[in-house]
Every structure is written in C-alpha cells, then in structure tokens.
C-alpha cells in the first residue's frame, strides 16, 4: 500500500497469444489479449498497446495503442479493428521516459528487410546507453527513448541484413542476448510465431499457459497458447498454467505448439537473479513463480516476521489489501487473533481537490474507514509489506490511536529499501528513501508507532527460497541453481553496472 | 458480491454541510461535500450533484451535476465554480427513472415565491402515484419522474403560498410528512439552513457529524456540521460522529448548530422499520446505525450462521470483500481456520467484450484469482452475504473445484430474498429471484455446491437487534421501540401499499 | 461579422416535423429533425435538444439534449435512441440564463394530468417576471430560469386541470396568449399533434414546409410537414416552402395536415412588429420572411445605402461573408466594380492562445487573409452590415491600409444600434454600444476610416417593406397591416415594458 | 468545392519559426507556431504536431502531436508545455498511410550520434520504395510508413556517423538531395537552426517571412523569422513576406538571420516543376507563389475561360467559395453580371446520419441554400474550379433547375484531371476520374447541364505563367527558368517514375 503513495512501481507487463488449429481461427485473439492485459494491469497503468498478426505471408498486422488503463485505451471500436488476428502480443506500461508519450507505448513495430516485427519488453537494459550509442554510430536515428525500440533496431542491425527467404531471427535474438545481459522478458512477434525470451539472469518473470476450450475444460486438443509476465492472467481467459520460460531461454510459440529453441548460459559462477520484490510486492498473489504461489511466499514472510519480531499485543491486523497474506501468516505463527481494523474506500481515486487545502492534511485517512469497535481499547500489531518513505503509515497510526487503540506496533514483512533499481523497477531516489534518512534511527518515533521492526534480508530470502528448493527437487531438473536479486535491499547488483 | 452482478443496489446517498463561525467561511464547503459524497459512492454511481448556497438574503446558489462517479462528474473547474458556498447539500444516485437522465439528477432546485429551495432525497415514496396525480391536478407540470421533484412541488404547493417575509418551511415539511409515511431521508436547503428529515418509520438512515478542526482535533469550537446517509463519510473529512436523526425527526442545521424541531409520530402500534439490508449488504462496514458498527453486526450474523448451520470442513473462507466480516465471525464461532481462497482483480471493471463470445462464459472468473495452494485437497465452507439469482456463485464454486477443493459448502449470512422492495432498493423482479424458482428446492445441486444453508430471519433479526438493545439502554432513552423492515425476506411491508 | 465578436446573437431556433401517412412512419423523423436543426444552427450554438413522440395513446416520448453544436450534442447513439418517433420538435439555443446549463436546454417536457407535453420556444416573454410570480403564487416551484418552463406551467395551470378524456389544449394556448403579448414563436407537442404558435405581434419568425418524397419531388401526396424558425432549413431536408404562421395564429400540424385553428388579434391600433434585425443580420440569406428572400432585402439595403451615402472610390468590397449581398447591391447601384479584398480563414475558431500575449493584439487579423493585389494603390469602400462596439472593424481597416489601400471608407447597411432588446436578442449593454459613446461623434477617426456612414432608419424600413407590399397585394389578403420592430434602433418598443 | 467531396487533397503543410535576439526569447514561439499552423490547416486536417527546441547545447526538445484539427490537437495544456522554445517546426497532415495513425504524425524526431533532429516534410518521394529498401538493407527498422522517418534515417545513415563536435548536416542534406529528386519541401531542425530545403524541381512551395514587432510594424530590428508552405500564414502572426526558398535551395534560418547555403541544380535540360494545382485549387487565395497572388491567377483563369468558352446567358455565378475568383474573372471578361445563386451552410459538417437513408440522397443539397429570387427565370453560367468525379456538381444543377433556372451551363476553370499524382497530392484512382470514363463524352448530359466546357491546358499554363514572367524580369534574376508540373492533366511527370 505504501508503494502506491510512494511511486514505486513495476514498469511493464507483457502478454501474448497464438491460436492453435486452423486459421483463420475461431478464437477471439484480440479479446484474449485484452483480458490477459487487464489481468496484468497492476504492472502498469499509463498506457496499453496490442498488435495482432494474421500470420499470412506477407503478414498483415493491426495495432492499437492508447494512454491510460486498458479499459480506457481499448474502446469497442479498437477491439473490432483488431479482431482478425490469429496471434498477437500486447503490453501495459507504467512510466514514461523519452520525449513523446504515446510514441513510447509498446509493442514497438518496425519494418525490416525481412518483414515486420513487433516487440514487447518488460525490464530495463543495464547497458542501454552503450547500446544506443552503438546503434546510432551505425547511422540509425532512434525515435523514442524506449528499450523496446533499441531492441528492435539491434535485432535488425546485426548481422547485416540480406534479402533471404528465411531470415534467421533466432540467430539475431541470440546475438542480442550476447550484447545485453539483463534485464528483459521479451515477446517478439514475426509473421506467425512469437518468440518468448527471458534474460540469462531471469530477472523479470515470464510464464506460458495453455488455452483450453472453455466448455470442455479438460479436453486434449488445446485452442491456443498464451505467454504472460504473470500466470495470474491465465485464469481470467480460461488458460491453464503450463510452465515458466527459464532464465536465458528462447521459446518459440506457434500454432503447432511450444518449442524450446535454446538456453543462453550465464557467465560462469553467476546465479540467477529473479527480482525478489516480485514476491514481496509487485506480483498478484495468485501468480506462480518458480513453482510456488506468491500468496504462500508472503504468508511465509509473515510467519518468519512473527519469529524474528514477536509482539505482546491483543490482535494482529493488516493494511489492506496487499499486506493481508503476511498478516495472516503472522497471526498463525504467533497465535494472536487476526482482526480487521481498516476498510478501504474503493472509490477514492482521483478527486480534484486543490493541493493547498485543509483537507489535504487528512491524507491517507480519506482512503480508509476505521473499524473502531474491533480494536478500541486494545493493543494492535499492524503488518505492512514495506515502508518506502514513511509518510503514509504515519496517518494510519494516528487514526488508530484516535479511535482508541492503546498501542500500535508496526511489523514490516520486508527489509528496508536502501538502493535504486536499474532493472525495471521505479524506486524513489536514494535521498527520498526513509531507510537512508537520519530519522530512520528512530523510525518508531518518526511515524508515531510504539515499535517498528523489519524482516531481515536473510529471513526474506529463506522465506522465498524455502518453497523453491522442494519444488525444484520434485519438478524441474533443469533448474540447476537458485538465486534472487536483492539489489534494492543490499546494493549487490547481479551484473556490474556501466555508466 | 452477488449484488453487483444481480443489479441489487441502494438508490441514493445524501450529504450536507454547514460551516460554523463567521461567513464567508474559511471552510472549503465544496470540498467537504465532494469528499463526503465520494464516501457515499457505494450508494449510487450513476450521477452526482452538489448545490451550495452563500446563505445571504437573497441567497446565491451554485450547482453542478454530472453523470457517473463523483470523480468523473466533478472536474476541477466544477469545484472551482462551487467554491464560494457557506453551506450545501449533495446527492449520489443509483438508478434512472423518468425520461431524461441528467434532469433526474439531484439535488432538485426550484424557485418558489419564498425563494429558492434545494432538496436531496434518499428513499422512495410508497404513495408517489397518488401524490403525483394530486400535484398535477393542481395544475403543476412535472418535468422529471423523480420523487425529489415531487417533494419540492409538494412543499411549494400546500398550504397556499403567500408573500411572507418569513415563510414557515417547517410547517410545510410537517405537512409533507402527513402526506407520505415512508420512505425518505431528506435534506432540504433554504438560504442559510439545512433541514434534515427522516420518515416516521426511519426506513432510510441519516446521521449527523461535527466537523472539527483538522490540526487540533479535540478543540471545542467546531468548524461546521455535516449530515450524511452514512457515518462512514465523516472520517474522510475529519468529522466526528454526533448522532442519528431519529425516525420522524426534523432537525435544523445552521451555522449556530443543530436543533431538533419536531418528531412526527408513527401511527399507534407501528414499530420503526429501518431497512435490515443496510446492515446485511448496502452500508459500508465502518458506518454506525442505531449505535452499532455495521461490521460488528455482520460478524454476529456470521457467528449466528455458524450456530444455525455448522459444517464439517477444513477451512472457512469468504467471497471477497463484502462477506469477510461474516466469514471471520463464522470462523471464530466454529473454531475453523480462516483462509483466503480468492483474490480480486480490481482492474476488471468494464472491458468492452462483445456479448456473445466464448469468453463471456468465463463470467465471474475474470474477476477473481484463485489462491490454489491455500485449499487444494481441502474441504471449504464459503460464506456469502446473499444469493440473489444464483448465477454468480455457481462459477466460483466451479473454479474452486477445478483448483482442487474436495468439498465446497455454501453458507449465506442472510435469509433468501423473496419479495420486491418499494422503499428505495433496486431488486430484480420476483421471477428472477432464485428463492422463488423451482430450482430453489435443490439449490445446492443447482449451483453445484455440496450443501447450501441460509441464515434464518429470526437469526438475522436477533443478530441485528442484540447490539441495539444494549445500546438503547445505555445511551438513547428516546429510542422507545426497536423494529426493522424485513419486507424483502418476509413480504411484511411496514405500511399498506397503495396501487 | 461584427456580431460574432460583439456577442450579439439570436437566442433560439425551433423546428418540428410530423410524418404523414401510416404510422409507424417510414420517414426518419429524428434525422429530419437533426438536419432541420443543423440548418438553424446560426440561431444558437450553445445547446440542442430533440423530443420525439410515437403519437400513441398514451404516447411514448424520447428525448435527447446536449451542450454545444448539434453535431456535438447528437452522437449516432443519441439519434438511434430517438429513431422510433412519428413526430417531434427540437430546439437550438444561444445563451444560458438560469442556474443549470443543461437543465435549461429545450424542448421542455412535463407530465400533466392530461399527459405529457413538450414545448420549444423562440423569443423572450416581456412580462416574464410577473408571470413567474403568478405561477409561484399558485404554489409551483420553477426549476429553471427559462421562459420555456414558465410557458409549460402556465399551460398546465389555468384553467384548473380536470381529468378529461379530451383536454382542450387550444383553449389553454389561447389563455396563455392573453397572458403574454410577445415575444414567442412556440412549438407545443402533445401526443400526436404539434401546435405552432406565433405571438400577435409576429415578433419572431415561424414558417411551415411540406416534406415531399425525395425521388419524385413534385408528387401530390406529401410525406410529412415541417415547421421552422426559418425556411432555409426546408431545402436541406427536401421540403418545400408552404407558408408562414401568421402573427397571433395557432396552427395545428398532424398526420392529417395543417389546420389554422385561430388568429388572436393585437390590441386595436397596434401594428405587427416582426424583428427588423432578422433581415439585417440574424437570418440566413436564403430564408423567406413575409414573402421575400432575406438576401434580396439585404441587397436592397446596399442599393439604398449607395443612394443615401455615395463615395468617390475605385472599388466596392465586403467584410465576408454576411455583408456581401449589401456590397453587391451597393456596387450595382453605384456602378463601381465589386472586388474581394479579404478572404476568410475558416479554421481559425478557437485556438487556445493565452489572453495577455503579443499575438492577441493581432485580433481579427488572424481571421482574414488580405488579397493585396486586388486593391493596393486603390481607394476602397468597405460595406459592413453593422457596427456594434467598433473594435473589430478597426483592425481590418489597418490591415487594408498597410497592404496599400490609399483610402478606406466604411458604409454600414443598417442604422446604429442604440437600445437593448427585451424580445429575444442578445445585445451588449447600452454602455458598450459604440453609438452611445462620446467617440461616436468622430466614429471615422475612432476606427481609422476615411469616412463612415450608416443607412438611415427610414432607408432600412423602406428597403424592407418595399418588397412586402407587392407580395401582400398579390398573395396574402389576410395580411392587413405591415410593421416592424425597430426598438434597438429607435427605442420604440412594440408593447409597454413592465419592470 | 468538388475536391472536398471527391477526396482530392493536399497532403501536408509545414511551418517553422526562429526567434531573433537574446535567448530565452520574449517571443511566444509555440503560439506563433500554432497560429501559423492554423493558417495552413487547409493543407491537412488529420493530425498536427509541433516540436520546439530551446537551442541550447545539448538542446531540450519539447513535442506535442495530436489527431484532428490544430484546435483539437492543441489544448491549452499542450501549448503550455511547449512554451519555453526559442525555435520550432510544425506540421499538419492530411492522409494516413502506414500502420499507426498517431505514430505517423510529423514532425519526426530522432536521436542520432550527433544529437536530436526533427524533420517536417511536405511532398512525396518518388523513389521511396527503393530508398526504404536501401535503409532497411543497412539494418535499420522503419517504424512508420512515412517519408518523414525515411528522410531522417537517410540523413543519419550516410556518410557514416562519427563522433564529431560539429556534424556536417549540410553535407548530409546535400547527399539526401542526390538520392531523391522530388518532391519535398523540408524543414530540418537541429539544436538552434532550421534548414529549409526545397527539391530541385521546386514541386512543393516554401516561403520565408520576417516576424516584425506587432506594435511598431515597420521597425528595423525583426523579432524572428518564419518559414511556411504558404505565405498566407504570415499575416495571421504579424509577419511580412520575405521571399521563396528557390528550387533546390538549402536555406539556414537561425537567430542571426536567413542564409542561403547552396542551390542543388536539376539535371541538364529539366525545367522547374512547381505543382500547377497549388494555383488551381490547393493554396489559399491570399498566398504568393513565384511573385504572384494565387487569387489573381485564379481570376486570370476565369478571364481566359471566358475567352475560350463564352456563353449566352443572363448571369455568371460561382460554386462558393473556392471558384469565386474565377467566376469574378469570367464576369469581368464577359461583361455578364456576377450574381450569387448559392449560400453555404457552414454548420453542416459531420452530422451522424446513417448511410442508407432517404436523406442521404439529398447529398450536397444539405450544404447549400438556394438564393432563388436571384436567378429564377434566368439563364445561368456556373463556374467551378474543377470536376473530379462529377457526382457533386450534378445535384447542384438539379437544385438550380428546380428553383427556376431556365438554363444551367458549367464552365470549369481548369482542364480535366486524368492522371494520378505521385508527388504529394491525394487523387482518386484513374478509374474514378470522370475524365477517364465513357460518360465523359457526354459530360453535360451526364451531370444534367446545358453545356460543359473546360479551360485548356495551354490556357491554364499561360494564365499561370503570364504573371511570373513579368515578376521574374523585374525581381528575381536567379529564376532562370519557368516550368510547372501538369502531370495530373497531361501525364507528363517531371522525372521518370521508378516502380
């Protein structure tokens, strides 16, 4: 909940779909894409784009992009326009860099000598400056600031284009992967296939699902394949979780099915570096990463927190809704009763209150209703998933006290955030992070709590990895190693950063 | 949660504010009104309107109305335009009757011989047909189908208007109350006062709050008074709960404070008839009615349900979010663990999917993510707050079974709805209600559950009234009697219906 | 052209249509109404409204209103919604009085004891204050500031409504006409008829047309009847001019044809008072009033101006486009060549230039291109149709001089405006009118012209009436008298004004 | 007027401005650009874009693009955002090619190794296919179908980019001009200068103006420089016509003034090929090309037409508004009186009438009012500027006959259009052009006229060139040759077309 206020956010979600069987397909590909994108909306709310292809030779692509939520950007007319596709990819975007907003919308589509390709990207290339310079030195003008355009130009650039009948895109993708180590989960559409690519560190998630017939859910012949930043999008379109794209893997998805083409290795000795904050905050709780449900990991974090930082209070509660799994975990582990103390006013959103008014001071109080009778006269431990700047938990504590809580303790189900992310997450500057401020020494006093404690980095890592190891042993022999990026907590980045 | 799908809904919310102290006030009345209205948004999403008055002689009124949510209807320019008011009333509306949408927006404002009045109404006049005819027979043309216009014309009509210096609006309001027994909670603004009126049966809620200085929350001199359909709106504007308007009471709210002018009695022998469904479903859980928090009543309903209809299962869960208090109550009473099995996709809203497509069949599944690992291989009792048509709980049960629930039992924290409401609630026709269909005999089979049980009417009434009696004894000596309208469950309407 | 800048404008246009033949009609009544309204758009651009009726017992009315131009207010969905009507009336509106914009949109529709009526009004009731008080004294609340609502309530009010099978609306209309002498052209729709009414002074125009089959233009059986503020709207819907509604006349238009029901007389000795500015400026040049084409009248004004105020110059030109007929008349009478010196930039409209900038000073120059080669080195007489505030002709003169005109003389094809209008025209306050300012003595110097002369009132009246007399003799025996309202020029109002 | 209906249209307009004097400038560059663009709106209504630069090292560019008219695309916020520029270029666009609408909006902006450049283009590269292939073979992906992007990539591509302090853009522009002969008028903005470039054939227009202080119009020190597709835009921003960019010329415009850098020659023996249809139809009448006002040329065309194709009628008239200069010329030459027979309904625009209705048949009649009394009983010659498909003049003739014209003769002030344009004009396919249909043999019968005659190609060319020769002799010694592109009339294209 802190994140929303503090401007921390995932930068993108990607989604793709290929209809199986005879083409033109009976499957409403544009609708599957739209619903899939809606289910990834929490990963980006600034713009949305869909590109579909009819898969013919040469293919016809249709494309629509718009600012705002998927529901805003895709009016019925736009969907109608896209309806003839047999496959397609789409993208939802959080923040805007570069000099023209809509132009930065993905997927990015370009004509090359070998035909039109479309690219959707989640992540952030750590060496994008050097790569941009390289591309421009070759005489290419770059029209947006997006990594997505950069990737398309890199794909087009090397090795030199020749007029071939069968262009070797896979070779070009492998070449791209040697140029940039991380971070990217990519969907590349060319005519009748989608290449799903994950960087060798597996920093950003990417999962594959099978689109099964709705009415006969367990029938053998599938109706299509989908690929998504998060598996939470599968259920809303009637798809079943199939598997993750592995770190470094290039997967080809076509009407004929899913085929692993290659797995590009990491430098010797490097571990995978899947973003641990996908577990802590970004992902939807029903998504599955590395074989485990995000909700379960958060619950384990709550249990671990109860072990590391117990409290002597009357009840455990949550800052709804994201901290609820951790709060329930804390309650289970501690044996304290779980009680709701706040209810959310889901209509608050944007009301056009002028900035410098008395009511502004109410701040976050506008967003929550206080369930007074549930805690008046009692001692409360409130579980939050993170504290970024510290200026939003503070009014909540005040509300609870005014409504009669005798003590308010804060337990945070993740360690303090101290470092910037260069791999796709939008984090406030180092100076804005409460953990880097002098006030952090007396954080409880600063935010008005009776006590504040955080989960340790070790506690978090073990809560995350505990579930994976068992999963690995049983299921995925190819998962040789386990590792997570904790850079924002520890400052240890998975690759050396160039400037 | 069923309600949203089935079209059951509250028809209105009303809110008013009077600044205390010197006028022109320093209080941003228009902003208080807007925020207050946002907190009542769950009572109506189709249109919103605000009317402010500067309170002078003669007064200047400013007004803005718009379709959609408050945030849509009130752009910054609109607020700017309203900013000079010293008092005001506002309204949010659910459904549209009559022949012109925006025209039916409230508050309704008219010029009378005695000056301009504005009226905001929550409820539905049981004898509106007869009253419309009466008004029209007097030679008045009615430009909307709304009760709100009808009320203004009735106020203007009788007794005959004369050019008086001090029109007796209170006499007119009393006269109105003799013409129509229920249901209405009314705000009537005239120049510098708001009259807050509740019908003798108290069918619709209405509460008063004190607007205290934000920065010095407990200071003596208040900054204003507010009046609202629900007390949940008080917190978001920094107001404190003061008291309810009593059934039949006329309260005058002015810059000088709150004054009870009169309490119109019910016919001998009639009990109050506050809508029991405000507790069951409509109200926000942090609102206070009859001295008790709605959340607490819902929790008691869950406990009562556990007593009346126990189950032998592994875990208790909820259809988020409205059934959660009842589910927690059921868990506490039964001793079963409370576990989340579904998470909500808050971005679903309106996506423009054509009606007759394959994806339409997915229905409610689009709205929920399934937290598989929390219940796979287990027996679940799912608490819902009501079942109206039965066509939305069904796909949820299917989802849970497919994800591995071995048994799914449904317990409903309210009795079956069997009868229409003529007092302000939008309910499907008798034929559409599942409780009136032949399938109801085997409701479990029909919706695919292992068992289905409802709370009894007696159980509901006792769960509601249990909290009031203690409240009454301790606090409100004037509350002589307790009674609730259960017409939609029992067919017993508080007054005889005319046709 | 001056008018646009100076805020002078017509206040309304009304239009109605009744399909002839079998109902449900094959005629697209809503489309005829929309196109008819578009052709009256010059009479009001602030809002538009259409109400249609299916003509059944009881009738179903459909209604749509919106702010802005017809093309903005009537999206395809709105038209679709209205499509089942067999008859309908509509309205386009210029200015907004009263406290709620959209609410003031016409037609005004009300339910009365005798059923629903809809009223569209062009004009302004001279005694509206007294009438409002009368209505309110009867106990009626008035929800808008519009005369249109006032008229509907007056129609409903007296004589007392009784539950009759056949309400006598005509008696009610006659009664209304005794209550208010002017100014109004009214369309009143009740179930299956439209009553077209013009006040006894005939101050505002109203004409009837026959809607003939498009493909067989001269066939006998018509497809419907239309009634409009101006006959210019007939051609755009394939209708033929039939006749004017006479001053004081009540005409009933139904599927069975057009029937004159009554002609209410003026007080003895009073002449008709058709607004002379309809000829001078407001009406479209192809409209017909009193048997003569507006363009022809304007041309005659130009000829008369050449007689009254000749010039010794090289060429005659126009401020496009409204002054062109007068300029051509001036050229014909004077024998001077007619030459264009300005071309209009039709895209200027609203560009969002901040008020206090250097470019603001360019003013009207943005709107016109100067055709330098046509007049450089020459003496020009520029014909304008009126000068209201004098601040727009001034930059044009400057433009012409800078481009090389050696002399610029201004001749105005109407007399100076000196008095306010209380009968439906929006005119700046007396103080803003250039003719009432001290500068008017040296108007030429003030605006930078070599000379300025106006048409005399006598010249204007004779140019207007010259065409009517011949028309009368030949065609309309019932037209006993000729007279025009020249109040804004002379201060002589057709009726005594009450305050 | 025919053009609008038939889809013939100019494809673009370009405009640029550089503030002179100290930077940051006091000149509102964004406002000058917006007003300049509005004055070019007739050259493209589908989208508009502005890019401004602060001119610093490195420069900051701000950019805004939008669909629709300038007034729609540039809301006040957009202008506010652009306000800090010291120079800028902008573009208005007619038609959409390529696969994403807004993406095709110009100016096109790219980052190159040498910094960011912005390009606005009017015209169409005759060899764009070959050039696209060349660029793509180099490994560049092209994200739009626009020539503008192609030009930026060509500029970036060759000769190879090196990291220089002072990149030689002029050499790159010269290189571009050797790659493609025509047609283009280009504005290229780089940091603090605008390069204005016209192809060696001078196919598209481009003029330079001096922005003088508004209040002291003749002062020596200018406030800036502007460059525009048409000089008509100068007046609306207070600029004075300076000169044309010559065919093949590269002009540098900076805060220090205007400097001619180079003139690239045409192949030996080739004449200039300025589009003759700019004179006939596209340009605004107050624009100046080759030293003469467009209006004057059109008038000469009318005179020439009267010589080539006289008629024995009572009056000459025009299809307003574009044919009016020719009609006045015809009247002057023939001695026949000039009379208006049609007036335009300027509000028609888009009304949402469904396609297959009775009213559709009314067609163009909706757009015009008939001034019956001006021509009833008379013989009319109607001057039109061109006939493309012949389906719009036809209903006009019918209207005039029905209103009483005894004869209707058509004279067209340009020759028949027979061939497609590949140099920037949107013309219907060869098959759709009336001049290529069998019906053309009896064109008068086909459109219902008493006679139809066209201006000859020779007549048109002499009417156009007559004014230039005298201008050349007197003013521009560098204009060695005169020539015009008449390809759409004669099939003689200025360069050989590649396929």
From TrEMBL, chains A, B, C, D:
<keyword id="KW-0658">Purine biosynthesis</keyword>
<dbReference type="InterPro" id="IPR005854">
    <property type="entry name" value="PurF"/>
</dbReference>
<comment type="pathway">
    <text>Purine metabolism; IMP biosynthesis via de novo pathway; N(1)-(5-phospho-D-ribosyl)glycinamide from 5-phospho-alpha-D-ribose 1-diphosphate: step 1/2.</text>
</comment>
<comment type="similarity">
    <text>In the C-terminal section; belongs to the purine/pyrimidine phosphoribosyltransferase family.</text>
</comment>
<comment type="function">
    <text>Catalyzes the formation of phosphoribosylamine from phosphoribosylpyrophosphate (PRPP) and glutamine.</text>
</comment>
<feature type="binding site">
    <location>
        <position position="421"/>
    </location>
    <ligand>
        <name>[4Fe-4S] cluster</name>
    </ligand>
</feature>
<keyword id="KW-0460">Magnesium</keyword>
<protein>
    <recommendedName>
        <fullName>Amidophosphoribosyltransferase</fullName>
        <ecNumber>2.4.2.14</ecNumber>
    </recommendedName>
</protein>
<dbReference type="GO" id="GO:0006189">
    <property type="term" value="P:'de novo' IMP biosynthetic process"/>
</dbReference>
<feature type="binding site">
    <location>
        <position position="322"/>
    </location>
    <ligand>
        <name>Mg(2+)</name>
    </ligand>
</feature>
<dbReference type="InterPro" id="IPR029057">
    <property type="entry name" value="PRTase-like"/>
</dbReference>
<feature type="binding site">
    <location>
        <position position="385"/>
    </location>
    <ligand>
        <name>Mg(2+)</name>
    </ligand>
</feature>
<feature type="domain" description="Glutamine amidotransferase type-2">
    <location>
        <begin position="12"/>
        <end position="256"/>
    </location>
</feature>
<dbReference type="InterPro" id="IPR035584">
    <property type="entry name" value="PurF_N"/>
</dbReference>
<feature type="binding site">
    <location>
        <position position="384"/>
    </location>
    <ligand>
        <name>Mg(2+)</name>
    </ligand>
</feature>
<keyword id="KW-0004">4Fe-4S</keyword>
<keyword id="KW-0808">Transferase</keyword>
<dbReference type="GO" id="GO:0051539">
    <property type="term" value="F:4 iron, 4 sulfur cluster binding"/>
</dbReference>
<feature type="binding site">
    <location>
        <position position="488"/>
    </location>
    <ligand>
        <name>[4Fe-4S] cluster</name>
    </ligand>
</feature>
<keyword id="KW-0408">Iron</keyword>
<dbReference type="Pfam" id="PF13522">
    <property type="entry name" value="GATase_6"/>
</dbReference>
<dbReference type="InterPro" id="IPR000836">
    <property type="entry name" value="PRTase_dom"/>
</dbReference>
<dbReference type="GO" id="GO:0046872">
    <property type="term" value="F:metal ion binding"/>
</dbReference>
<dbReference type="InterPro" id="IPR017932">
    <property type="entry name" value="GATase_2_dom"/>
</dbReference>
<dbReference type="GO" id="GO:0009113">
    <property type="term" value="P:purine nucleobase biosynthetic process"/>
</dbReference>
<feature type="binding site">
    <location>
        <position position="275"/>
    </location>
    <ligand>
        <name>[4Fe-4S] cluster</name>
    </ligand>
</feature>
<dbReference type="GO" id="GO:0004044">
    <property type="term" value="F:amidophosphoribosyltransferase activity"/>
</dbReference>
<dbReference type="InterPro" id="IPR029055">
    <property type="entry name" value="Ntn_hydrolases_N"/>
</dbReference>
<feature type="binding site">
    <location>
        <position position="485"/>
    </location>
    <ligand>
        <name>[4Fe-4S] cluster</name>
    </ligand>
</feature>
<keyword id="KW-0479">Metal-binding</keyword>
<keyword id="KW-0328">Glycosyltransferase</keyword>
<keyword id="KW-0411">Iron-sulfur</keyword>
<keyword id="KW-0315">Glutamine amidotransferase</keyword>
<feature type="active site" description="Nucleophile">
    <location>
        <position position="12"/>
    </location>
</feature>
């Amino acid at each position: 909940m802190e994140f929303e206020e503090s401007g921390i956010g995932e930068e993108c979600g990607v989604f793709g779909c290929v209809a199986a069987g005879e083409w033109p397909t009976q499957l409403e590909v544009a609708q599957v894409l739209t619903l899939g994108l809606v289910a990834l909306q929490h990963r980006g709310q600034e713009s949305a784009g869909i590109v579909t292809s009819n898969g013919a030779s040469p293919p016809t692509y249709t494309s629509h992009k718009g600012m705002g939520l998927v529901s805003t950007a895709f009016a019925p007319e736009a969907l109608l326009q896209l309806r003839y596709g047999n496959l397609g990819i789409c993208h939802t975007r959080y923040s805007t860099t570069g000099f023209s907003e809509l132009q930065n919308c993905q997927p990015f589509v370009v004509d090359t000598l070998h035909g039109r390709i479309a690219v959707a990207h989640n992540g952030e290339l750590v060496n994008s400056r050097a790569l941009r310079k390289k591309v421009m030195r070759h005489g290419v003008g770059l029209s947006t600031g997006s990594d997505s355009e950069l990737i398309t130009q890199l794909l087009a650039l090397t090795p030199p284009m020749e007029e071939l009948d069968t262009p070797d895109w896979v070779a070009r993708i492998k070449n791209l992967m040697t140029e940039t180590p991380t971070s990217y989960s990519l969907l590349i559409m060319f005519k009748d296939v989608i290449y799903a690519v994950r960087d060798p560190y597996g920093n950003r998630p990417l999962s594959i699902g099978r689109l099964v017939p709705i009415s006969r859910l367990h029938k053998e012949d599938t109706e299509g394949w989908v690929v998504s930043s998060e598996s939470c999008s599968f259920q809303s379109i009637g798809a079943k979780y199939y598997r993750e794209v592995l770190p470094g893997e290039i997967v080809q998805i076509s009407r004929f099915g899913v085929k692993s083409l290659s797995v590009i290795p990491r430098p010797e000795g490097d571990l995978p570096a899947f973003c641990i904050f996908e577990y802590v905050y970004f992902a939807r709780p029903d998504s599955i990463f590395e074989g485990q449900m995000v909700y379960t990991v958060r619950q384990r974090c709550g249990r671990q927190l109860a072990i590391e930082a117990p409290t002597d209070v009357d009840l455990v509660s949550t800052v709804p809704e994201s901290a609820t799994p951790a709060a329930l975990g804390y309650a289970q582990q501690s044996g304290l009763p779980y009680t709701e103390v706040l209810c959310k006013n889901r209509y608050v959103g944007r009301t056009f209150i002028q900035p410098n008014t008395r009511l502004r001071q109410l701040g976050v109080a506008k967003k929550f209703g206080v369930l007074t009778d549930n805690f008046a006269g009692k001692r409360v431990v409130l579980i939050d998933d993170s504290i970024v700047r510290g200026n939003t938990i503070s009014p909540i504590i005040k509300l609870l006290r005014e409504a009669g809580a005798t003590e308010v303790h804060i337990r945070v189900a993740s360690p303090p955030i101290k470092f910037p992310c260069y791999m796709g997450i939008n984090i406030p500057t180092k100076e804005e992070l409460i953990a880097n401020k002098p006030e952090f020494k007396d954080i409880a006093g600063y935010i008005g709590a009776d006590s504040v404690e955080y989960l340790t980095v070790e506690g978090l890592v073990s809560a995350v990895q505990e579930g994976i190891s068992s999963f690995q042993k049983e299921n995925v022999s190819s998962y040789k190693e386990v590792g997570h990026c904790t850079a924002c907590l520890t400052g240890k980045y998975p690759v050396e950063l160039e400037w």
